[in-house]
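Why unspecific monooxygenase? Reviewers of the renewal asked for a concrete example.
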Amino acid sequence: MHLHSQLSKVYGPVFTLYFGMNPLVVLHGYEAVKEALIDLGEEFSGRGSCPVIQRASKGYGVIFSNGKIWKETRRFSLMTLRDFGMGKRSMEDRVQQEACCLVEELRKTDGLPCDPTFILGCAPCNVICSIIFQNRFDYKDQIFLDLMERLNENARILGSPWIQLCSSFPALIDYVPGKHKKFFENYACMKSYVLEKTREHQASLDMNNPRDFIDCFLTKMEQEKHNQELEYTVENLAHTVLDLFAAGTETTSTTLRYGLLLLLKHPEVTAKVQEEIDHVIGRHRSPCMQDKSHMPYTDAVVHEIQRYIDLVPTNLPHAVTCDIKFRNYLIPKGTGILTSLTSVLYDDKEFPNPEVFDPGHFLDESGNFRKSDHFMAFSTGKRICVGEGLARMELFLFLTTILQNFTLKSVVDPKDLDTTPVVNGLLSVPPFYQLCFIPV
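Here is what the prediction returned.
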C-alpha cells in the first residue's frame, strides 16, 4: 500500500505534504482527481517543477514546458502524431512493420529461456525512430544501441532517490557532484544526434511531402518564420523530439514486459486471448487495429494489464496556473499537485478486488468490452499523454502479434512467479524473470 493511501485514510482526499520547503498538494480518489484535472482542467494544467529535467530542457518541449510554448508544442505534436500526419505511411503501418521485426527477433531465441527486457525495449524505441527519423534501425545497430542505453540510463537516474532529493533541494544540482551530471551528459549527447539528423533533414526537405516528425516541424518553422514567436525553433524541435523518445520508449517497453509476466502467471487468460486471435485473425495475416473491435477479451486484457501494473502511480507532477479555491482550500498559483492515479485505478467500487489481475474488470455480463472512466493509465485532462493513441496501438499490435506466433512458457511454475513491482521512483517496474517463446 502506498504512503499516500495511508495518509488519505487519516487526512481525506486532499492534503499537503512538504518536500524540503515546497508544499505539494496530494489529491486522492477518483472524485478529487476528476474535479481537478477535468472540471478545473485549465487551472490544474501546469507542470509541477522537476529541477533536474527542467535544467536540461530549458522550458522547451512538451512534457516539462508551461504556458504558451507548451500549448503550441502540444497542439502541433498531437496533430502530427495523428494517423496520417506524416507523408504516406500511417502510424499503424509503422507499428505493424516493427511487430514483424520483433517476432523475427524472438524466433532467434530458439525457444530457450530469455530475459525479454532488451528486445521489448528495442521495439517501442524503433517505432519512435520511424516516426521521428522516418526509418527504423537494426536491433544490432551501434547508434541505435547507444541511443537506447542513454535513454535507459536516464530513466534509471530519474527514478533514483538522489533525483527526488534534488527536486526538494535544487541547490544540490549546482554544488554537489552526482548522477545528475551523467543525466545532463546523456541528454546533451542525444540532443546533438537529433540536431545532426535535423541538419540532414533540412538539406533534403520537401515541404509538400513530409516524411516524418522532423520534416513536419521544419515545414511548420518555415510557415511561421515571420512570427516572432519562440515555439518553432530548432531548439524546441530538439527538446520535443527528446520528450517523445523519453516518454515513448521506457513506458511502453515496461508495460509490454510486465504484461508478458502477467500472461505467464495466468495461462488461462493467455489461452483465451489466443483463442480469440485464432477466431478473429487466424494464422496467416498480421493483426491490425480493425481487429480490436471484434476482440473484446483481448482489449480487456490490455486494459487490465495497464490498470493492474499502475505504471506511473503518482502521475507526473501538476501545478496550478493561478490562485484557486478547491474544496475550501485556497491553493496559491504555482503550487505543485500530485494526483494519485493508483487511487483511481485501484478503486474497489469500480474494480472489485482491484489487487487481483482480472480482465473481467473491463467486461460486462455478456463478455462485451466495458469502458470505464476510472481508466486513467494515461492520466486525464489537458496534460493527458500525447502519445496515448500510439501507445494503445503498440500494446495491442505487439501483444497480439507475439501471441499469434508464440506459446509463452515459464521457466518456473507459474504459481511461483512474483508479480509485485520493484520500487522505482517514477515507474512501477516488474521483477526480473525469464520465459521461453515457443513458435506456434
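Strands lie at 14-19, 22-27, 46-47, 318-319, 324-326, 329-331, 336-339, 406-410, 435-439. This is the kind of structural detail the renewal will allow us to pursue systematically.
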